[in-house]
Description:
Elements: E1 26-35, E2 38-48, E3 53-57, H1 64-70, E4 81-89, E5 92-93, H2 101-107, E6 108-111, H3 123-134, H4 140-153, H5 157-160, H6 173-185, E7 191-195, H7 203-216, E8 221-225, H8 229-235, E9 238-244, E10 251-258, H9 259-264, H10 269-275
Parallel strand pairs: 3-8, 3-9, 6-7, 7-8
Antiparallel strand pairs: 1-2, 1-4, 4-5, 9-10
Amino acid sequence: MTAAAADPVPAKNGPTVRTTGVAKRIDVADLNIYYGAFLAVKDVTMRIQPNKVTALIGSSGCGKSTFLRSLNRMHELIPGASVEGSVLLDGRDIYSPSMDPVSVRRQIGMVFQSPNPFPTMSVYDNTAAGLKLNSKRMKRDQMDAIVEKALRGAHLWDEVKDRLDKPGSGLSGGQQQRLCIARATAVEPDVLLMDEPCSALDPIATLAIEDLIEELKQKFTIVIVTHNMQQAARASDITGFFNIGQSGDPGILIELDETDKIFSNPAHKETEDYVSGRFG
């Protein structure tokens, strides 16, 4: 299936498993992403399904992370950056002038490549940071309940429940990344974006994050950028392969399909060459 055929898996219309919010579909159409006059990513059309993990793979510099940041308007925080085309979150264009970028980023959360807990904040305050920024005043017992729920959801509660007032930066690397995931999920987003979330972690911590991602997709739509082919094969339902031609060309989406098909019988030779290690 080519990138232009943007619906590799039927839309999921079953009952939600969430008590607040609903994992949402993202439809990207004819998206061009610029840094100033430079076209970095060209003509991306794809559908990102709810309650599934979509992995974005491709060689360095092909625009995967740039595309990921465009899905919650973080790309436009870079001076001179802009987009053309549309990104629809359940039918609503997140780039519409009527859409508040801060609200978009609350609905579409992000976990970054390196664990980045706020160094001066405690484990508790790190988890609650988004709530304090985005929510109206909340009673302490309500905040406590949400923080505990988020930390439990990140499989971190038992490890930190007796040190909630200690700095988040004092945790191990894998714990810090799970803390960042707890911080992102505490505000109940609809979509969770992850940019190389395991690249700075050891193999044991990486497998723990992958297990967590498998559980989180029951509540969220998840998009993950990874250079690790084995991780994409293990952790995702859908895989999109990005590629770039010569130096200076924009990145393009070559193929989007079910992960098993991408890794066993891709439609494009470029994809086959990449996943088999012949280039990239």
